[in-house]
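hey can u check if this looks right to u? its 189 residues, i copy pasted from the old doc so theres a chance i mangled smth
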Amino acid sequence: MNTAESSTTDTIGPSKWYVQISYQVSVENGPILRGGAEPASLDFVTGFGQVIPGLERRLIGHSPGEKLSFTVPPEEAFGLRIDELVFEKKKSEFHFPAGMQPFPGMEIPVVTGAEGLETAIISEVRDDTIIIDCNHPLCGKALQYELEIIEARPARDSDVCAEWEEKCDDCAGACSPYEVVLGKSEESS
């Protein structure tokens, strides 16, 4: 919904547009995720997958000064939950650092093959096993956005990283103060 007229003829395009928004996002009928007390700020360049697809799609064709309110369905946000991404593993397959005890809600890095490191969440700790969920925590959730477009213009060369232009699929990294190795003993490290 457009609640303000734009003062410019520049409208956001699907590729290589620099966009800055002031926003609040919440789980539909749930908690505020960002922009609670004061709106959060976000800037990105369209066409490079820097934001969820449903947010970017709903900004295309809009202009600076516009205030928008919309819901992004799960399929256009973090996807639907996939039951096959929930695993039960023996505790003996985990090798936590000394003194660290697993607990529900704990985020752990997991090596997923060619994709590299991903984050999984421990959903349950049983006597001899641990249930890990590799779904994104927001999978299956619709997201409600309230936002204002602050700036929109064709991206400058300085706005676009060379790595984005190369369509690098392996540029995302992960950082954790802990390393939890699944299925590998410390002696084989």
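Residues 1-8, 168-189 have pLDDT under 50 and may be disordered.
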